[in-house]
Amino acid sequence: MLQPKQTKYRKPFRQDYTGKAxxxxxxxxxxxxxQAKEGAWxxxxxxxxxxxxxTRSLDRQGELHIRIFPHLARTKKPLEVxxxxxxxxxxxxxxxxxxxxILFELGGNITxxxxxxxxxxxxxKLPIKCKIVKKGEEN
Length: 139
What we know:
Elements: E1 32-36, E2 40-43, H1 44-58, E3 63-66, E4 72-76, E5 89-97, E6 102-107, H2 112-123, E7 130-134
Antiparallel strand pairs: 1-6, 1-7, 2-5, 3-6, 4-5
Helix pairs in contact: 1-2
């Protein structure tokens, strides 16, 4: 699963995912993309599950570009531990996704129906509402 190789601060504060994205809203590497319709934290497990679903549907045709990366560490205290005694240890990593961000892109030698079907299958692995967009129709 994806996680940073090294971090400057191990236990950062929460980051907000409300509002619209300022960058990362245009398709840059492929022809078709998966665009977020709402903001959320996407875990590295969810990103990996989506990647597997899309690549299995494509049968090694085309190229998949993952546009998000889980930089934000989320902490959790162990079960049955009393309040206080500091912040918990790092449990997992999440990517901060805002509305209108492009999450995944498909390109290369791939037909339109197979690209749309692969992105539809990948969309079901994510915890947010998404839509499939073509290059130039990102708004």
